[in-house]
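Study the following:
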Amino acid sequence: MTRRTAWQIVLLLGLFWLLPTAAATAEKTSDTKSEVASGDLDRHTLIYGGDLFCARRLNFALLAPSGEERNKVLAAVAPLFKEADLAMINLEGMVTTGGYYNRLRRCSYVYRAHPNVVDMLKNAGVDLVTIGNNHNGDYGPEAQIETVDQLAAAGIGYVGAGVDLEDAMRPVYRQ
């Protein structure tokens, strides 16, 4: 079994585990809703920004001399991210200066971003990134470790992958 297949299985198992839990929670919530006026419930907002491709144009911006110039990349959506209770994006690629191009993957496109991307995400208000995608592992396991280390050091949560299976399956909690 390849590492990629293992991650796909983990993601599918996670979905099958979450769906029944969500259904049971929805049943409990419907009972509670009848007892509590809607004005008494806390409201929370989640914003999902979609794919952020760690590729050439982004890296050109990330190598700009000032943080102000780097932050322009997400300036249009940063106010939305900052206003949300949880802001999330899909990080397509690795956050690393190292690693190696993994020819065994036979990908037409591989993505790697300079570590400045983490500061840019943090400054834009991103709280959580999904990294379990088809470009996870583009530059090998060392790059994967550097990616999660960079995210963790900045206080940005990650889901979908990690340094090992236990890390990949660990939930992220935010208050």
